[in-house]
Design a protein that fits this description.
44% of the residues lie in helices and 14% in strands. The protein has 346 residues and is an alpha/beta fold. The protein folds into two domains: 186 residues, D-Maltodextrin-Binding Protein, domain 2 (3-Layer(aba) Sandwich); 94 residues, 3-Layer(aba) Sandwich (D-Maltodextrin-Binding Protein, domain 2). The chain is globular and about 65 Å long. Pathway: Cofactor biosynthesis; thiamine diphosphate biosynthesis.
């Protein structure tokens, strides 16, 4: 018997070993702590590229740090995280953003808030979905030696005026608010060449404190700045918008774009020098020094009084509409709930 028992022992040991091995690899409580080896198929799924929706953002003007938050949203991957492949195109008189977006060929644009109201009056259904500069960067400025420091000093002087846009509206609103007779100021239509100001041909110039003022100071001139806020005026200058049709068709896309854009602007606020440098990838004629100065000058205008980035106030829109109608730019009153919405910021 002892001989038969000794012959069976190696077989029993082998069976016990196999049972232990199966227990370790199979179900039961021990399986919950086991680490399964990754399969080739799961690795392929993890690295598969994400499908992105391609959209276009048409700027208000040429590429520069004025739009640094949008560049940051591209560069830091915020748009991609939202499932978007965003192409940023420059704007200007040859590529007006309202017309480009309203045509349906582009999805988003940046323009002055007054242009939203005027477009809606003409039957163009565009809606503002956030504002970029909560405090307008627009100012009037003069060379320091002129002695002109306020609108009242313009009586009997020649002022440069950019006709047909947000700049003209703000200039006329400032003159009216100051109680100055418009006819007492000699006007000279100007565009973007600063020569008439530098040569003394005009005494005051309309422009952005983040751009034209810096350009003149970088040439070695001291300037006096006249702010719209000193006359109770603050019109949203750069406003992000889209069409009512896109809002109704794909609100999730609009929300993703707005929130990724605000992430980009938050990053630009926290990293102004880095964000300013992003713009250099979009235009060959930019200099890092000017772009950094522009971004730093923009910071206090983006979140004055620490108000939420991008959020719009109905009071500001109502005041703008009243000014447009009072000065004869707009005839028919527009409904505020069609003009702007903050719903995509929340």
């Amino acid at each position: 018997m002892w001989g038969k028992a000794n012959k069976k022992k190696p077989v029993l040991i082998a069976m016990s070993f196999m049972l232990l091995l199966l227990s370790a690899c199979g179900g039961g409580s021990n399986a919950q702590t086991a680490s399964p080896a990754p399969s080739a198929s799961s690795e392929v799924q993890e690295v598969a590229p994400k499908s992105l929706k391609k959209v276009v953002l048409r700027l208000k003007w040429v590429h520069q740090a004025q739009f640094a938050g949008f560049y940051a949203a591209v560069k830091k991957g915020f748009y991609e995280e939202a499932g978007l492949d965003v192409e940023i195109r420059p704007g200007g008189s040859d590529f007006p953003s309202v017309q480009m977006v309203a045509s349906g060929s582009e999805e988003f644009g940046v323009t002055g808030a007054d242009q939203i109201l005027l477009a809606r009056e003409k039957g163009v259904p565009v809606t503002a979905i956030s504002t970029i500069y909560r405090e307008t960067p627009f100012v009037l400025f003069s060379l320091k030696e002129s002695g002109i420091t306020k609108v009242e000093d313009l009586v009997g002087q020649k002022a440069g005026v950019k006709l047909g846009g947000n700049e003209e509206l703000t200039f006329r609103a400032m003159v009216e608010s100051a109680g100055v007779e418009a006819k007492s100021i000699e006007e000279m239509p100007i565009k973007f060449d600063l020569s008439p100001l530098l040569s003394g041909q005009v005494k005051v110039w309309p422009g952005y404190v983040i751009n034209e003022v810096l350009a003149v100071e970088e040439l070695g001139h001291e300037v006096n700045i006249i702010k719209p806020g000193d006359y109770g005026i603050n019109f949203y200058a750069d406003t992000l918008f889209t069409t009512q049709a896109l809002i109704e068709k794909d609100p999730e896309l609009v929300k993703g774009f707005v929130q990724a854009s605000m992430k980009g602007w938050t990053y630009a606020l926290e990293n102004p020098e880095e964000a300013a440098a992003f713009g250099l990838e979009y235009a060959d004629n930019l200099t890092l020094e000017h772009e950094v100065n522009m971004m730093k000058a923009s910071v206090p205008l983006l979140q004055p009084d620490n108000l939420p980035l991008g959020k719009m106030d109905e009071t500001a829109w109502t005041t703008l509409q009243e000014s447009l109608m009072g000065l004869g730019f707009q005839k028919a009153e527009q409904t505020m709930e069609d003009v702007f919405t903050n719903e995509f910021l929340e």
